[in-house]
């Protein structure tokens, strides 16, 4: 139980870092997706929303729910490559910070951090 508790706290810190990186890159203040957009079955809801919307309103919200309820966290995660592609038109230094945050989340959930 102690490990799960610790893993949850680490993820909470990593999500806060991601939020700050997204704010710094000006991709945090994005339009709230419609209820229909949230029903997408495609990876990253790529057919119904922009990647920053998916990060903020799907991924981060799901993780927050898991943290709040003490649910088991995923044991595999690989999100950072999608961020590199989705944000290729943004300033490289700022995108690098987002990708670094997502790499840390990927590594933490995959047990390689």
Outline:
With 113 residues, the protein is an all-alpha fold.
Describe the structure.
It is a single chain. This protein is mostly helical. It has one domain (2-32, 39-110): de novo design (two linked rop proteins) (Up-down Bundle). 64% of the residues lie in helices and 0% in strands. It has five helices and no strands. It has helices at 2-24, 35-38, 51-69, 80-86, 92-110. The longest helix has 23 residues, at 2-24. The radius of gyration is 14 Å and the shape is globular. The two termini are 19 Å apart. The relative contact order is 0.18.
Question: What labels describe this entry?
Answer:
mainly alpha, 5 helices, globular
Q: How many domains, as an integer?
A: 1
Summing up helix and strand content along with how strands pair, one would put the structural category as: mainly alpha
Write down the overall geometry: globular
H/E element sequence: HHHHH
SSE inventory with pairings:
Blueprint: H1 2-24, H2 35-38, H3 51-69, H4 80-86, H5 92-110
Helix pairs in contact: 1-3, 1-5, 4-5
């Amino acid at each position: 139980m102690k490990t799960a508790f610790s893993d949850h706290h680490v993820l909470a810190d990593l999500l806060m870092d991601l939020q700050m990186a997204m704010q710094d890159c000006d991709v945090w203040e994005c339009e709230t997706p419609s209820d229909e957009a949230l029903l997408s079955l495609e990876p990253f809801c790529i057919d119904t929303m922009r990647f920053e919307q998916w990060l903020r309103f799907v991924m981060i919200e799901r993780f927050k729910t898991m943290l709040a309820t003490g649910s088991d966290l995923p044991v595999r995660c690989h999100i950072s490559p999608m961020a590199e592609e989705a944000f290729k038109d943004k300033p490289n230094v700022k995108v690098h910070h987002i990708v670094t945050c997502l790499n840390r989340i990927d590594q933490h959930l995959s047990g390689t951090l």
